[in-house]
Fold Acyl-CoA dehydrogenase.
Amino acid sequence: MTDTPASSIGRTESAADVVAAASAEALSATLDYDTVPLEGDPLPLLWHWMFFKPMVRQSLIAADGHPAKGSFLPDLGLPRRMWAGGRLRFHTPLRIGDPIIRDSRIADVSVKEGRSGKLAFVTVKHDIRTSDTLAIEEEHDIVYRELALPGAPLHRR
C-alpha cells in the first residue's frame, strides 16, 4: 500500500547513539589523519553522518539497499530514491563520548512530472541534540523516481 504525500508530512522518528571514540578513530584512520579525536574533543564537522545507522533485518531491506519505505520514509509507489540535496546548520560541536539523539520529521512531500516521468521530492528535517542542546539542524532532500523504461536513453548533462 502506498502513502499519500499529505499523510506522510509530519511523520516522525527518533534515534539514539553515542559519539564513540572507536568510530572517530576508525574514520580518522580511513582518512589517513595523523591525529585521533579523544574523549571530550569536538567531533569534526560532518562526521555525525557515521552515527544513527539503521539496524534493519535483511528481509526488510529494499532493492535499493535501504530500509523498505513505508515506516518512516513514505512509500509513494516510486521505487528509485536518491539524495537530491541538503542544508546544515551547526550550533554547537558534538564531542567524543556525548550521547546524542536525532529527532527526524517529514517536513514536505511534493509530486511532480519531469522529462523522465513522475518524481516525488521528500524533505526530511533532522535535529541532533546532545543533552538538551540543539547541536545540528539538517535537512535532506530525497527524490523518488519511476523505474527507467527498458531501452530509454540515459540523460546526460
Summary: The mean pLDDT is 90.
